[in-house]
Fold:
Amino acid sequence: MSIDIAVVPVAGLGTRLLPATKSQPKEMLPVGRKPVVQYVVEELTQSGINRLLFITGASKTSIENHFDTDERLIHHLRESGREEELQQLDFERRDVEYFYTRQRRQLGLGHAVLCSKSLVGSQPFVVALGDSIIGINAKSDIVQRMTEEFESSKADIVVAFEEVPKADVVRYGIAKPRGDVGTRFELEDLIEKPSVEEAPSTYAVASRYVLSPAIFEALEETEPGKGGEIQLTDAIRILLKRGAKGVGMVLPPDERRFDIGNYGSYFRAFADFALADPDYGDQLRDYLRGVL
Ligand code: UTP
Structure:
């Protein structure tokens, strides 16, 4: 059976984006015309995912509302003949099942993934971070390529990676590849936020994973790591050390990752998406030329 379930962690506190995230989820911040998490869902559904489990927390109910059908709004738009706006709600009617569970304490990404254990059970699954978009307007089928790789190479773990400047390795989980690196490589190890000297490569984890259910046992054994949080990378490491087969897949430049976790990267993502807007991109480009 092909992999059709994705866990989307959206329970983080988003403290680096305060005050914007005080009472609204960072995953609902707009990038161009859509909230970040809508791009994530669109990317996943075009890669064959039709069951989505959100790991949510307090102040995250607007995510559930966003993916629910809003009959009153539909009725209002239909009555007033606003077909174009109605089309903007097409995503509500996707053939997708949504599930929500709460991470009651924000103990880290690994802990958030562990909260999916009873729903996911004994099947392989995708993890897609709700605060990262892959490719402009989410035009990426990386998750499909990853699930195919998982199945064809009988892997236990497939992780997407993006090349980052050497100085930035301190902010990410970094791959230790075994052998040659092309568009894919064998993953020997993963180091969470290494120093520039320690970093075994410049391939940074890019917020998409395909995991075997063995990860749950590894997460249960994982001690809190950097920042006192239970890190998903540490659990992946446990599996790799025990001989699990890991594969890294490198994102091509046209499928780069837009992470909106801090204001620097959020502003850049917004600018890229606004500049790519079919109606307003050119006007904005002219405006910015004037400003600069
Ligand atoms: P981050 O590592 O950016 O953490 O989360 P954060 O808590 O959201 O943000 P800061 O550091 O306070 O600014 C990466 C992804 O993992 C989810 C987040 O919602 C985000 O989508 N996450 C993180 C959880 O679901 N639970 C956690 O305990 C931590």
In short: The chain is about 30% helix and 25% strand. The two ends are 54 Å apart (CA to CA).
